[in-house]
Design goal:
2 domains, Serine Threonine Protein Phosphatase 5, Tetratricopeptide repeat, 495 residues, 6 helices, mainly beta, single chain, Methylamine Dehydrogenase, Chain H, 4-stranded antiparallel β-sheet
Length: 495
């Protein structure tokens, strides 16, 4: 089921109501029968989706035509991945070929031109002999990479987005391999924005480059001018000891999802898009504290807003979607009558031209089942989720995290005893404990003395274990052991 909300000037919501903004979530009807979408992506003026039969559908302003509802794009290849930039699309076929179409400003299509418009998908010929395994698009840029981490980039390059340095000036019109040494151990994801880029490695480490303004790159740029440019990817050392599952980027801010299912934000916050209840720009990653007790599983960024999906393991009915940032176009889905709270004595409607900005996470949807994909355009949001009209949830639903997980071998949680799992908590083996809980070990289990995992965390000063228990749904904070002690008693005695 598709749910969308926000700006609809070009019918990018797909609900057949062009020019009518939707300030609350609405469902999107698919004209063709028996079509099931598995992925969705957004640009400023259009939306594209991939079906389970490897077909591409689009709606909005595309091909210089207004498509008010999903229409199938004629591509003779089986498509495995879809991505979209400001005004162009990139798809990857099951055989490893890259096709692009749309507006080719600054060489974004990779065909050797700078400003042409291609209405039909066309193979990027210079990559035809290369087996591509991943693609990315954003702004006026595109990227593709191989399983051996050979990275090719093309498009706008004024801020070194193509990681070629400033040698090639304003644009690169054909895929050019990034020759800068990247000892990252494999590429999981590439994120492209208007003025900066990022790489998430398979080891869960983050690398960023481009314009440094507002701290969007996530590391210390003290002493550098706001107009400065970092020409090549650099490791964001803030996450050096933390594995990341995902990252996302807006125009000038970024989000990161950690293996502990926490969300961090940094960069520009002039619309509250970092979720810190502040207009200050954050030059280093900062945890979104409002989501601390929730288990985040998906993140997404629009140009000036952010979206996070939270859900408990094996509990699709616990799914919640939170939004924050700029909301004047309806992209937050909070409704016409939603009014932001006062901040520092200022009335938002007076100071921000009537924009309905949210400085901290706001709940927009709940009980939407499993969310398989979420995407944001400049001023609209699209959610691909389970059809809640079904009578029951599949048993396997949410049995695994909805985002890439660690490559470490899974724990045989069904064979682990209470003693063994409690030992993991006692010795702060947080990742092993998380895997055991996610894969089915009961969060409410007790040891021979009726202690809970929260008792163990409090007794041993394991703050990370306590936080994980709360994130994964432990709610009985007053649970007592055989001696009538709660976890709070242990906090006073041992911490």
């Amino acid at each position: 089921m598709l749910i969308s909300f926000g700006e609809n000037t070009f019918a990018q919501l797909g609900n057949s109501k062009a020019f009518i903004q939707e300030f609350k979530p609405v469902s999107v009807e698919v004209p063709e029968k028996n079509v099931t979408f598995v992925d969705v992506r957004c640009a400023s003026h259009y939306t594209i989706a991939l079906s389970d039969e490897n077909r591409v559908y689009a709606w909005g302003l595309l091909y210089q035509n207004l498509l008010s509802s999903p229409v199938r794009i004629q591509i003779k290849y089986k498509v495995s991945q879809i991505r979209c930039g400001m005004k162009h699309c990139v798809v990857l076929t099951s055989s490893g070929e890259v096709l692009t179409w749309g507006q080719g400003s600054f060489g974004a299509l990779g065909h050797g031109e700078f400003s042409t418009f291609n209405s039909k998908p066309r193979i990027v010929s210079s990559l035809k002999e290369t087996r591509i395994t991943g693609i990315a698009a954003g702004g006026y840029n595109s990227a593709a990479w191989t399983s051996s981490s050979r990275l090719y980039m093309w498009g706008f390059n004024r801020y070194s987005q193509c990681a070629t340095g400033l040698k090639y000036k304003a644009f690169v019109n054909r895929p050019r391999q990034v020759t800068h040494k990247l000892n990252i151990g494999g590429i999981e994801k590439v994120v492209l924005s208007i003025q900066h880029c990022a790489i998430l490695s398979k080891k869960g480490q983050l690398y960023t480059w481009g314009k440094v303004r507002h701290g969007r790159l996530g590391y210390n740029t003290k002493g550098m001018a706001e107009t400065s440019v970092l020409e090549f990817p650099m490791h964001v050392k803030f996450f050096e000891s933390t594995r990341l599952l995902d990252c996302a980027s807006g125009n000038a801010h970024m989000l990161a999802l950690t293996q502990a299912h926490e969300v961090f934000a940094w960069g520009c916050s002039d619309s509250g898009q970092t979720g810190q209840n502040s207009l200050f720009h954050w030059r280093f990653p900062k945890r979104v504290a409002a989501l601390d007790r929730l288990c985040a599983v998906r993140i997404a960024c629009g140009a000036f807003h952010s979206v996070v999906v939270t859900s408990l393991p094996n509990r699709p009915d616990s799914t919640k979607i939170f939004v924050w940032g700029r909301g004047g176009g309806g992209q937050l889905g909070l409704g016409h009558d939603w009014t932001p709270e006062r901040h520092r004595g200022l009335q938002w409607g007076d100071k921000f031209d009537g924009r309905r900005d949210a400085l901290s996470p706001q709940l927009v949807l709940r009980n939407v089942g499993n969310v398989s994909s979420i995407a944001c355009g400049s001023a609209h949001t699209v959610v691909l989720c389970e059809d809640m009209s079904s009578s029951s949830y599949p048993s396997e639903l949410m049995s695994k995290p909805a985002v890439p997980t660690t490559s470490a071998p899974p724990l045989p949680s069904h064979d682990l005893s209470v003693r063994e799992v409690f030992s993991l908590a006692r010795h702060d083996r947080i990742e092993d404990l998380r895997r055991a809980l996610v894969q089915g070990f009961s969060i409410t289990s007790r040891d021979e003395n009726h202690n809970t995992l929260l008792h163990v965390a409090a007794q041993n000063g394991r703050k990370r274990v306590a936080r994980l228990c709360l994130q994964l749904g432990f709610t009985d904070l007053n649970a007592q052991n055989m001696r009538g002690q709660t976890a709070l008693h242990f906090c006073f005695a041992y911490v």
